Amino acid sequence: MGMVMQMRLLLLVVVLFIGVVLEFNGVVCSSYTRPPVRKTIFVPHDDDDSNSPEQVHISQVGQDKMRISWITSSPSPAKVEYGPSPSANALSSTGTTSSYRYLLYESGEIHDVVIGPLQPNTVYYYRLGDPPSSKVYQLKTPPSQLPIKFAIAGDLGQTDWTKSTLEHVAKSNYDMLLLPGDLAYADTIQNLWDSYGRLVEPLASQRPWMVTQGNHEVEKIPVVHSSKFTAFNARWRMPFEESASDSNLYYSFDVAGGVHVIMLGSYTDFEAGSSQYQWLQGDLKKVDREKTPWVVVLIHAPWYNSNEAHQGEKESDDMKAAMEDLLYQARVDVVFAGHVHAYERFTRVYKDKADNCGPVHITIGDGGNREGLATNYIDPKPDISLFREASFGHGTLDMFNSSHALWSWHKNDNDEAVLSDSAWLTTLSSNPACKS
C-alpha cells in the first residue's frame, strides 16, 4: 500500500473517531475523569487454514433449540453436525449465510444454523461446515426447570481486564450469560469485531450468550454510514422473532421453566406508542406468573445511577419516564444495566423512592472495557443505593426455585475473583402485598 493511501486511511480513521465522539455526545465528552486505560487486545485468526470456522458463539432459540453462529473467510455451507458424543454426530441442520460491508471493510461469511430439538441440561458435540471441520466443539443446554445460574457482565470490551473477567466467568459454572450491551468496543473499526469474536469464543461456543446492544454498537456515521447497528445485527443475531419482536434490538425468551428474560434497546425507539413500547406492553401481558414466577429485564443505560458518569442522558431519563410504569405494574423482579463503568446495587425502587413492589436495579457495566472505571460517585449516597464500588468484575444470579435467588458480585481488581457484594432476592410474584 502506497504512502498516500496510508495517509488517506489514517485521515479516514481520524474522521470516523470524531464522528463517533459527536454521535455519542456525553459518552466520550463526559464530566468525570477516567483512570489510565489498558490497551486493547487484538486476537488474530490463529488457524493455519484461513477458511476454518472462527468466532463461534451460541444463543438460545425457543426452549429446546440453539443457534450456532460462526464466520469463515470464504463461502462454505452453513451446516452443523451434532450429537451426544464426540464420535456420534448423527444429526445435522443447515442454515443461512450472510455478510455485510462497512466503508472499506467487508466481513467474512457469517453462518447461522439452528439445531434441535435438544434435551435440557445436556452436553452436545458439534462440527461446523460441509465437509465438517476437524475441530469438535461442545455445548451444554440450559436446564428445563429451576435451578439455573446466570453469569452477567456488561461493557466487556477486549482488554487485560476483559481477560480476567472471562477467566472468572468460566470458573463460575454458569448455564447462560446475559450481557447488557457494549460488546466489542469496535467503534467503527470492524476488524475489532473479529478480534472480539475470537476472544470470547472459548466461552461463547459452550454456553448460550444472550446480548442486547449499547451505545458502542450504534456505529452510525452521518453521511458516510447512515445505518445503525450494522455489525451488531449481522454478527449477534438474537431470537427476536420468537417473541413477536420486529427488531434484533429488543426481544424476550423463557428459560428453565420459570424465568422470563426481557432484553430492551436503549438506543432505539422507546417512547410511548413506539414499536418497542407496544411490543413490551404486549410481552409483559403474556407472562403467566404462576408458571413463570421470575421476570428479569436488561437495558444498557441505567435508570438509577448515583455515579457522576452518564447523568442526564435521554437514553436513561427518557426511557425510564416512558417505561418504568410498565415494569412496575408487571412486577418485574430485577433490572440489570451497563453503561456506567462501575458496580451499584439499589433496593427495590419506583419513581426514585424505595418501594417493596418495585424492581431491584443493578448496574454492572464493569466487564473490562478500554475506557477505564467511573470512579466518582455522588455524595451523599442516596438511601436507595445499597452498595457501590468502582471495580471491574462480573455477577452471578443463582435462581434456586420459584421464590428465592442469590445475587453475587465478584470484583477482579487484582485479577482474582473476590466476592464483594451479595443479596438474596425473593420474587414479587410470591409477595401477597404486590399482587395486582
TrEMBL record:
Calcineurin-like phosphoesterase domain mapped to chain residues: 148-343
Xref: InterPro entries: Calcineurin-like_PHP (IPR004843), Metallo-depent_PP-like (IPR029052), MPP_PAP (IPR041792), PAPs-like (IPR039331), PAPs_C (IPR025733), PAPs_N (IPR015914), Purple_acid_Pase-like_N (IPR008963)
Limits of the Purple acid phosphatase C-terminal domain: 358-418
Residue ranges of domain Purple acid phosphatase N-terminal in the record: 53-141
Gene3D superfamilies named in the record: 3.60.21.10, Purple acid phosphatase-like, N-terminal
Keyword line: Glycoprotein, Hydrolase, Signal, Zinc
Signal peptide from the UniProt entry: 1-23
Cofactor: Zn(2+); Fe cation
Entry EC number(s): 3.1.3.2
CDD domains: MPP_PAPs
Record's catalysed reaction(s): a phosphate monoester + H2O = an alcohol + phosphate
Family of this protein: Belongs to the metallophosphoesterase superfamily. Purple acid phosphatase family.
Name of the protein described by the UniProt record: Purple acid phosphatase
Organism listed in the record: Stylosanthes scabra
